[in-house]
Amino acid sequence: MQRRQFLKTTCFGAACCFAGGSLLLNACGTAVYYAEHQVAGKRLVLKKSAFRYTTKKGELRERNFVLVRPAGLGFPISVFRGPSGYSACLLRCTHQACEVEVQGSRYACPCHGSEFDVQGAVLQGPAEQALLTYKIEEDAQHIYILLA
What is the fold, at CATH topology level, of the domain defined by 32-146? Predict the structure, then answer.
């Protein structure tokens, strides 16, 4: 095989793996969902229905996480729905300000490997401080993230 043909084949294979991997992750329900929200004073208002979705087969499912990206904040806020209620964390690593990612039931920093639980506590360094968290209030239909 000539060098040029090898490079074409290798690049095509890598592109297929990347595309296929993305589709597989989305099919597994690990895709990140950015929820619509409103700003009301110093609160973000999020509908609880943002945690529900319908599959292609018509099944009703629940998300554990939704993200909101408020204007001017620089990083998204993750809202986690757990057995004891909701929690909200700014996805900004306290080590060197990289954007933290949702990975299963934890947050992970892709830059240096810090890991945090869903309440923002450090599970693994190099980060030494917890993620910034926000107080949450709720009513029957809405979640209110208190920014101040």
Answer: Rieske Iron-sulfur Protein (2.102.10)
Q: What is the pTM of this model?
A: 0.74
Can you give the residue ranges of every domain in the chain?
1-31, 32-146
Residues in CB range of 93: below 8 A, 6 or more apart: 99, 100, 109, 111, 112, 114, 127, 131
Q: Tell me: pLDDT of 101 over 60.
A: yes
The pLDDT of residue 21: 39
